[in-house]
């Protein structure tokens, strides 16, 4: 029986890795090209990042209904619906380009947000797939390795297909986005995840408002918001900044590819770093690397500065976001898991959506250097909170001893 259970765990994790590889390829396509297509279709320069911002908004608004659907109908049903919407979103976005319809293109990227919310939830499905709580961190890291494959697939799809339909530049990439989501459907259909835990424990689950006021949740959520928010904000602006500085679209896409590779490649060992150094230390290291990416970006506008900053930003996101996710796991009981995870993702991606709406305006007004300089104080605040929490924990341990 144990052998059968272990085989099922391996099978589910393998399917989640493959689904992550395909689903995780959509955001690089949208982010690499969304601003450029926006510049092509929109008559207002400051609205150029609106398609990417609407993708982030769609993702944020989908976290809560996606979590509700997962609880009511199971993760597999929600994931299948997400992939179907992923297919439709790519088709609608491509059709919007072919019709030179900016609003239709924006509708396509917005619909992709629900698929994105489901893909982001694959890391939580990895927890459900393994029964041993000591293996949760390694399961999360393993599934997120699928993002490493996505980092290759997404940007390469942009490079190979952006001019495949000469009459409608970039439309071929969005048709390819739809095809990737279509390929994910049979993988998700084959998932056999255990049922969700009961909504209440014998002693009763705590209200969400009570959990949200705990210092543990506040620090974990803020660390996740800042790690993911800054990464997405800078990643959205980077392709336009690179093209504006004279670099080619292909070089911008390769920069995003190196960035996404850096986001997921450390997942091979992030779990081990957390086990050795602790969750707060790894989260703090990630934030330091995000700050270092901003400092490198301020040093020049050569291709090496852009690519180097994007690589540091990706590694920093990996440590910061996985560390924050691990910190979040300490904030809730099993019966509280779904609602706490949904609230955390709503806060993270809601902030990302709000920030991305301002990225085009800020890039236009203060430039690439200005937005990199502006993110440094935010990193400093989160590092201070992590230090305060660590000191608070040590004092509590000293009093108990």
UniProtKB/TrEMBL annotation:
Q: Which PROSITE patterns match?
A: MFS (PS50850)
Q: Which residues cross the membrane?
A: 12-33, 53-70, 77-96, 102-122, 143-162, 174-193, 214-236, 256-275, 282-303, 309-330, 342-360, 366-388
Q: Per its record, what are the GO molecular function terms? A: transmembrane transporter activity
The residues covered by the Major facilitator superfamily (MFS) profile domain are 216-401
Residues making up the signal peptide according to the UniProt record: none
Q: Name one Pfam family in it.
A: MFS_1
GTP-binding found in the keyword field: no
Keywords for this protein: Membrane, Transmembrane, Transmembrane helix
Tell me if Membrane is a UniProt keyword of this record. yes
Q: Mind telling me what this protein is named? A: Major facilitator superfamily MFS_1
- What species does this protein belong to? Acidovorax ebreus (strain TPSY)
Q: What is the lineage of its organism?
A: Bacteria, Pseudomonadati, Pseudomonadota, Betaproteobacteria, Burkholderiales
């Amino acid at each position: 029986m144990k052998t059968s259970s272990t085989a099922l765990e391996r099978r589910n994790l393998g399917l989640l890795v493959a689904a992550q590889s395909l689903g995780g390829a959509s955001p690089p396509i949208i982010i690499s090209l969304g601003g450029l297509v926006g510049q092509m279709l929109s008559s207002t320069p400051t609205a150029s990042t609106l398609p990417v911002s609407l993708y982030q908004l769609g993702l944020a608004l989908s976290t809560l209904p996606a979590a509700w659907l997962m609880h009511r109908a199971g993760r597999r049903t929600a994931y299948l619906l997400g992939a179907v919407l992923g297919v439709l979103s790519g088709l609608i976005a491509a059709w919007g380009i072919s019709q030179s319809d900016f609003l239709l293109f924006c509708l396509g990227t917005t619909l992709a947000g629900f698929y994105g919310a489901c893909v982001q939830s694959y890391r939580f499905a990895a927890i459900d797939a393994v029964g041993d709580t000591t293996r949760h961190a390694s399961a999360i890291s393993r599934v997120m390795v699928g993002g490493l494959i996505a980092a290759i697939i997404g940007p390469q799809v942009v490079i190979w297909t952006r001019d495949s339909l000469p009459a409608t530049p970039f439309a071929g990439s969005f048709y390819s986005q739809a095809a990737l989501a279509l390929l994910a459907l049979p993988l998700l259909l084959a998932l056999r995840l255990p049922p969700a835990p009961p909504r209440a424990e014998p002693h009763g689950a705590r209200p969400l408002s009570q959990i949200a006021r705990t210092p543990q949740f506040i620090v974990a959520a803020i660390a996740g918001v800042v790690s993911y928010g800054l990464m997405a904000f800078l990643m959205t602006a980077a392709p336009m900044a690179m093209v504006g500085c004279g670099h080619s679209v292909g070089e911008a896409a390769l920069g995003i590819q190196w960035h996404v590779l850096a986001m997921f490649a450390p997942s091979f060992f992030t779990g081990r770093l957390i086990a050795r150094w602790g969750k707060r230390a790894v989260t703090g290291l990630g934030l330091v690397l995000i700050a270092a990416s901003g400092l490198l970006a301020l040093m020049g506008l050569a291709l090496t500065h852009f690519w180097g900053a994007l690589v540091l930003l990706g590694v920093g996101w990996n440590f910061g976001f996985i560390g924050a996710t691990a910190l979040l796991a300490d904030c809730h009981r099993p019966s509280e898991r779904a609602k706490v995870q949904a609230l955390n993702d709503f806060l993270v991606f809601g902030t990302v959506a709000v920030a991305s709406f301002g990225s085009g305006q800020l890039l236009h007004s203060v430039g690439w250097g200005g937005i990199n300089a502006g993110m440094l104080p935010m990193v400093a605040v989160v590092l201070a909170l992590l230090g305060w929490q660590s000191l608070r924990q040590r004092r509590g341990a000293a009093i108990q001893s």
